[in-house]
Amino acid sequence: MESTTNNEITLTIDGRAVTVPAGTTILQAAREAGIEIPVICYHEATTSNGLCRTCVVEVEGARVLAASCVAQAAQNMVVHTRSERVLRSRRTILEMLSSAVDLSEAPEIQQMIEDYGADTQRFPAAQKREFALLDDNPMYVRDYSKCVLCWRCVQVCAEDAQYTYALSYNGRGFNTMISTFFNEPLPATTCVFCGQCVGVCPTNALKPRREWLLEQGKTPEEIIALTPKERRRRPQ
Ligand code: SF4
Q1: Which ligand 1 atom is nearest residue 41's CA?
Q2: So what's the pLDDT on residue 4?
Q3: Strand ranges (DSSP E) for the chain?
Q4: pLDDT for 203-225, tens place per residue?
Q5: Residue 221 Cα, ligand 1 centroid: separation in angstroms?
Protein backbone atom coordinates (compact mmCIF):
# COMPACT_ATOMS: atom_id res chain seq x y z
CA MET A 1 0.00 0.00 0.00
CA GLU A 2 1.54 3.37 -1.04
CA SER A 3 1.21 6.70 0.66
CA THR A 4 -1.13 9.03 -1.33
CA THR A 5 0.89 12.20 -0.61
CA ASN A 6 3.56 13.09 1.90
CA ASN A 7 0.87 14.41 4.20
CA GLU A 8 -1.56 11.55 3.86
CA ILE A 9 -1.52 7.98 5.03
CA THR A 10 -3.63 5.01 4.12
CA LEU A 11 -4.61 2.34 6.60
CA THR A 12 -7.15 -0.46 6.78
CA ILE A 13 -9.88 -0.46 9.41
CA ASP A 14 -12.17 -3.47 9.63
CA GLY A 15 -11.18 -4.35 6.07
CA ARG A 16 -11.89 -0.87 4.69
CA ALA A 17 -9.04 1.20 3.24
CA VAL A 18 -9.14 4.80 4.40
CA THR A 19 -6.82 7.70 3.53
CA VAL A 20 -6.47 10.48 6.10
CA PRO A 21 -4.05 13.34 6.84
CA ALA A 22 -0.98 12.32 8.83
CA GLY A 23 -1.58 12.93 12.54
CA THR A 24 -5.20 11.76 12.43
CA THR A 25 -6.21 9.54 15.34
CA ILE A 26 -7.49 6.04 14.69
CA LEU A 27 -10.87 7.15 16.10
CA GLN A 28 -11.18 9.95 13.56
CA ALA A 29 -9.92 7.74 10.74
CA ALA A 30 -12.57 5.16 11.65
CA ARG A 31 -15.23 7.86 11.60
CA GLU A 32 -13.98 8.89 8.13
CA ALA A 33 -14.55 5.29 7.08
CA GLY A 34 -18.05 5.31 8.58
CA ILE A 35 -17.07 3.07 11.49
CA GLU A 36 -18.30 4.11 14.94
CA ILE A 37 -16.16 3.33 17.97
CA PRO A 38 -17.77 3.78 21.41
CA VAL A 39 -16.37 6.50 23.68
CA ILE A 40 -16.95 7.77 27.21
CA CYS A 41 -14.17 10.20 28.11
CA TYR A 42 -13.71 11.44 24.53
CA HIS A 43 -15.65 14.58 23.53
CA GLU A 44 -15.25 16.68 20.37
CA ALA A 45 -14.80 19.83 22.47
CA THR A 46 -12.18 18.52 24.87
CA THR A 47 -8.63 17.21 24.63
CA SER A 48 -8.42 13.42 24.55
CA ASN A 49 -6.46 11.64 27.26
CA GLY A 50 -7.32 7.99 26.64
CA LEU A 51 -8.68 7.63 30.17
CA CYS A 52 -11.73 5.38 29.92
CA ARG A 53 -10.28 2.87 27.40
CA THR A 54 -13.73 2.20 25.95
CA CYS A 55 -12.44 3.16 22.50
CA VAL A 56 -9.69 0.52 22.44
CA VAL A 57 -8.95 -1.19 19.13
CA GLU A 58 -6.64 -3.99 18.06
CA VAL A 59 -3.74 -2.98 15.83
CA GLU A 60 -2.10 -5.90 14.04
CA GLY A 61 1.45 -6.41 15.33
CA ALA A 62 0.88 -4.37 18.52
CA ARG A 63 1.22 -6.10 21.88
CA VAL A 64 -1.58 -4.22 23.66
CA LEU A 65 -4.88 -2.69 22.62
CA ALA A 66 -4.67 0.97 21.63
CA ALA A 67 -6.90 3.78 22.86
CA SER A 68 -8.09 5.02 19.47
CA CYS A 69 -8.89 8.56 20.70
CA VAL A 70 -5.18 9.24 21.23
CA ALA A 71 -3.36 6.66 19.09
CA GLN A 72 -2.37 8.06 15.71
CA ALA A 73 -3.16 6.23 12.51
CA ALA A 74 -0.07 5.13 10.60
CA GLN A 75 0.72 4.15 7.03
CA ASN A 76 -0.27 0.55 6.26
CA MET A 77 -1.69 0.05 9.77
CA VAL A 78 -4.29 -2.70 10.01
CA VAL A 79 -6.92 -2.05 12.69
CA HIS A 80 -9.75 -4.16 14.05
CA THR A 81 -12.41 -2.29 16.00
CA ARG A 82 -14.61 -5.27 16.86
CA SER A 83 -12.31 -8.26 17.36
CA GLU A 84 -13.14 -10.68 20.17
CA ARG A 85 -10.32 -9.21 22.25
CA VAL A 86 -11.68 -5.67 21.78
CA LEU A 87 -15.25 -6.65 22.61
CA ARG A 88 -14.15 -8.53 25.73
CA SER A 89 -12.12 -5.56 26.88
CA ARG A 90 -14.97 -3.08 26.40
CA ARG A 91 -17.38 -5.43 28.15
CA THR A 92 -15.04 -5.77 31.14
CA ILE A 93 -14.57 -1.99 31.38
CA LEU A 94 -18.34 -1.52 31.42
CA GLU A 95 -18.72 -4.24 34.05
CA MET A 96 -16.08 -2.64 36.27
CA LEU A 97 -17.67 0.80 35.88
CA SER A 98 -21.06 -0.67 36.78
CA SER A 99 -19.57 -2.26 39.88
CA ALA A 100 -18.27 1.02 41.29
CA VAL A 101 -20.31 3.91 39.87
CA ASP A 102 -24.00 4.82 39.84
CA LEU A 103 -24.71 4.83 36.10
CA SER A 104 -28.48 5.19 36.47
CA GLU A 105 -28.46 8.60 34.75
CA ALA A 106 -25.92 7.83 32.05
CA PRO A 107 -28.09 6.78 29.09
CA GLU A 108 -25.23 6.46 26.58
CA ILE A 109 -23.31 4.14 28.90
CA GLN A 110 -26.49 2.18 29.64
CA GLN A 111 -26.88 1.67 25.89
CA MET A 112 -23.28 0.45 25.66
CA ILE A 113 -23.90 -2.00 28.50
CA GLU A 114 -26.78 -3.41 26.51
CA ASP A 115 -24.92 -3.41 23.18
CA TYR A 116 -21.90 -5.25 24.63
CA GLY A 117 -23.89 -7.65 26.78
CA ALA A 118 -22.06 -6.46 29.90
CA ASP A 119 -23.04 -8.18 33.15
CA THR A 120 -23.59 -5.35 35.63
CA GLN A 121 -23.55 -7.91 38.49
CA ARG A 122 -20.27 -9.51 37.51
CA PHE A 123 -18.44 -8.13 40.55
CA PRO A 124 -21.07 -8.34 43.32
CA ALA A 125 -18.56 -7.84 46.15
CA ALA A 126 -17.11 -4.67 44.63
CA GLN A 127 -17.27 -1.49 46.67
CA LYS A 128 -19.34 1.39 45.26
CA ARG A 129 -17.76 4.84 45.05
CA GLU A 130 -20.21 6.83 47.16
CA PHE A 131 -20.02 10.52 47.98
CA ALA A 132 -22.50 12.93 49.52
CA LEU A 133 -24.23 15.12 46.92
CA LEU A 134 -22.77 18.65 46.92
CA ASP A 135 -25.38 21.42 46.83
CA ASP A 136 -23.24 24.48 47.51
CA ASN A 137 -24.31 27.02 44.90
CA PRO A 138 -27.48 28.21 43.13
CA MET A 139 -26.55 26.91 39.67
CA TYR A 140 -25.69 23.22 39.76
CA VAL A 141 -25.31 20.23 42.04
CA ARG A 142 -22.47 17.70 42.02
CA ASP A 143 -23.13 14.04 42.66
CA TYR A 144 -19.76 12.36 42.38
CA SER A 145 -21.25 8.93 43.08
CA LYS A 146 -22.24 9.17 39.40
CA CYS A 147 -18.83 10.38 38.20
CA VAL A 148 -16.79 8.15 35.86
CA LEU A 149 -13.75 10.47 36.12
CA CYS A 150 -13.84 11.17 32.40
CA TRP A 151 -12.10 14.50 33.04
CA ARG A 152 -14.26 16.38 30.50
CA CYS A 153 -15.49 18.92 33.09
CA VAL A 154 -11.96 19.66 34.29
CA GLN A 155 -10.72 20.25 30.77
CA VAL A 156 -13.62 22.37 29.57
CA CYS A 157 -13.14 24.52 32.71
CA ALA A 158 -9.44 24.89 31.80
CA GLU A 159 -7.64 25.32 28.46
CA ASP A 160 -10.26 23.60 26.31
CA ALA A 161 -12.78 26.41 26.73
CA GLN A 162 -13.21 28.57 29.80
CA TYR A 163 -9.70 29.14 31.24
CA THR A 164 -11.24 29.26 34.72
CA TYR A 165 -9.50 26.33 36.40
CA ALA A 166 -12.14 25.98 39.11
CA LEU A 167 -12.16 22.18 38.86
CA SER A 168 -9.40 19.70 39.50
CA TYR A 169 -9.20 16.46 41.45
CA ASN A 170 -8.75 15.33 45.02
CA GLY A 171 -7.70 12.07 46.64
CA ARG A 172 -5.81 9.10 45.26
CA GLY A 173 -6.60 5.74 43.72
CA PHE A 174 -10.10 4.48 44.53
CA ASN A 175 -10.88 7.71 46.40
CA THR A 176 -9.93 10.03 43.55
CA MET A 177 -12.72 12.48 42.86
CA ILE A 178 -13.25 15.67 40.90
CA SER A 179 -13.07 18.63 43.24
CA THR A 180 -12.10 22.26 43.70
CA PHE A 181 -8.84 23.49 45.20
CA PHE A 182 -8.74 22.59 48.92
CA ASN A 183 -12.23 21.16 48.35
CA GLU A 184 -13.68 24.68 48.71
CA PRO A 185 -17.39 25.25 47.94
CA LEU A 186 -17.82 26.45 44.36
CA PRO A 187 -18.76 30.06 45.21
CA ALA A 188 -15.39 30.37 46.96
CA THR A 189 -13.49 29.35 43.83
CA THR A 190 -12.80 30.94 40.45
CA CYS A 191 -15.99 29.31 39.04
CA VAL A 192 -18.06 31.73 36.93
CA PHE A 193 -21.02 29.29 36.65
CA CYS A 194 -20.82 29.19 32.86
CA GLY A 195 -22.34 25.69 32.90
CA GLN A 196 -19.92 24.22 30.36
CA CYS A 197 -18.91 21.44 32.77
CA VAL A 198 -22.57 20.49 33.14
CA GLY A 199 -22.92 20.49 29.35
CA VAL A 200 -20.12 17.96 28.77
CA CYS A 201 -20.82 15.63 31.72
CA PRO A 202 -21.94 12.24 30.30
CA THR A 203 -23.46 10.85 33.50
CA ASN A 204 -25.50 13.65 35.10
CA ALA A 205 -23.02 13.78 37.94
CA LEU A 206 -23.26 17.50 37.27
CA LYS A 207 -26.83 18.71 36.97
CA PRO A 208 -28.60 22.10 36.89
CA ARG A 209 -29.85 22.76 40.42
CA ARG A 210 -33.36 23.66 39.24
CA GLU A 211 -33.66 20.38 37.37
CA TRP A 212 -32.50 18.54 40.47
CA LEU A 213 -35.00 20.40 42.68
CA LEU A 214 -37.81 19.62 40.21
CA GLU A 215 -36.84 15.96 40.48
CA GLN A 216 -37.10 16.32 44.28
CA GLY A 217 -40.75 17.32 43.78
CA LYS A 218 -40.29 21.05 44.39
CA THR A 219 -42.64 23.46 42.62
CA PRO A 220 -41.22 26.34 40.52
CA GLU A 221 -42.28 28.74 43.31
CA GLU A 222 -40.46 26.69 45.92
CA ILE A 223 -37.39 26.57 43.67
CA ILE A 224 -37.35 30.35 43.33
CA ALA A 225 -37.68 30.63 47.12
CA LEU A 226 -34.78 28.19 47.51
CA THR A 227 -32.52 30.25 45.21
CA PRO A 228 -30.55 32.86 47.15
CA LYS A 229 -31.63 36.38 46.16
CA GLU A 230 -28.13 37.68 45.53
CA ARG A 231 -27.68 35.01 42.87
CA ARG A 232 -31.04 35.70 41.24
CA ARG A 233 -30.30 39.33 40.44
CA ARG A 234 -29.20 40.11 36.91
CA PRO A 235 -25.74 41.70 36.66
CA GLN A 236 -25.92 45.52 36.30
S1 SF4 B 1 -18.28 15.11 36.85
FE2 SF4 B 1 -19.05 14.40 34.84
S3 SF4 B 1 -17.73 15.44 33.33
FE4 SF4 B 1 -16.68 15.59 35.33
S5 SF4 B 1 -15.28 13.84 35.37
FE6 SF4 B 1 -17.19 13.20 36.39
S7 SF4 B 1 -18.42 12.23 34.77
FE8 SF4 B 1 -16.80 13.42 33.75
Answers
A1: 8
A2: 61
A3: 8-13, 16-21, 56-59, 66-67, 78-80, 140-142, 168-170, 177-179, 206-208
A4: 999 999 999 999 999 999 998 88
A5: 30
CATH number 3.30.70.20 given to 140-232: yes
| 8-82: CATH topology | Ubiquitin-like (UB roll) (3.10.20)
Q: How long a stretch of residues is the chain?
A: 236
Amino acid at the residue 85: R
233 has pLDDT over 80: no
Checking if the pLDDT of 9 tops 70, the result is yes
Q: Give the DSSP letter of residue 6.
A: T
Protein residue with least CA distance to atom 6, ligand 1? 147
CB within 8 Å of 235: residues ≥ 6 apart = none
Please give the model's pTM, rounded to 2 decimal places.
Answer: 0.91
16 with 35: CB under 8 angstroms?
yes
Per-residue DSSP letter, 179: E
Provide CB contacts within 8 A for 21, sequence distance 6+.
Answer: 7, 8, 9
